[in-house]
Structures are given as C-alpha cells and as structure tokens.
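Person: I have long wanted to understand how a fold can be written as tokens. Underneath my words sits a plain record pairing an amino acid chain with its backbone structure tokens. Those tokens are not coordinates but codes from a learned vocabulary of shapes. I should like you to check that the lines agree and flag anything odd. The protein I mean follows directly.
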Amino acid sequence: MNEALFDHVAAHYDSWYDTELGSVSDQVERHLAQFMFKAPGPQVLEIGCGTGQYTSWLVQEGYEVTAVDISGEMMALAQKKIAALEENTSKAKPVHWWHADITEILDQLETYDGIFSMTAFEFVPEPEKALQKLF
C-alpha cells in the first residue's frame, strides 16, 4: 500500500461526503454497518480508519477501538475527531492508534471481539491472504 497517496488526499478526503454521491454512499455504508456489525464483545480492530468516519461511530456504539491506518495524515484527522467526541461524551472508551500498513502487522495483532473495515481492502495487495491471517 502507499502511505504517500493517502497522505496527499487526507486534507480534502472528508469533502467527498459533502457531494451528492458521497452523501448517498455514506448513508448506505452507515446503514449497512449499523445493520451488519455487531461484535460480541467490546474490543474491535478497525482496519483502515482513515479520517475517523467510522471510528467515531464505533466509539459511540461503545466499542474500545484499535484503529489502524497506513496514513499518518489521515490518522491525525481521525484523532482530532475522536478528541472532540471524547470531550462531549463521558462514556467514550479509549481508542488505541496504530500507524501501520495492515499487511505488515498481521502477526503482531492481539485477539479482538470483532474486526471492522470500510473501503480499505480494495487497497490491500492480495487481500485474500490478509483475510486468511485475520480469521
């Protein structure tokens, strides 16, 4: 994966959600996430946290998130979102940040109650191999 590619678009990434297509896509993805993702416990690994669009949702759902992303710039934006959320939410569980390429840390991961990823695996070379190691 390419950190520079994602760092380059980080500052403008969230503006896509302000477009008509981005707004519809976000609504569909959020609906799917809310309908389909139910971890049996509190520990969740988020692969490709990006700017924190779903990290904030996971925190609001009560999960303790380990957020992984290859882009330091994207992660910095996510950290700002979560800091603002934590100021307004007394029950927010901590987020553990891991700036890394997911394919390079698969052997270092702990056990999680659930794994969440939205629009990340299309950027992973040989995603089948990564998924086999995760599950």
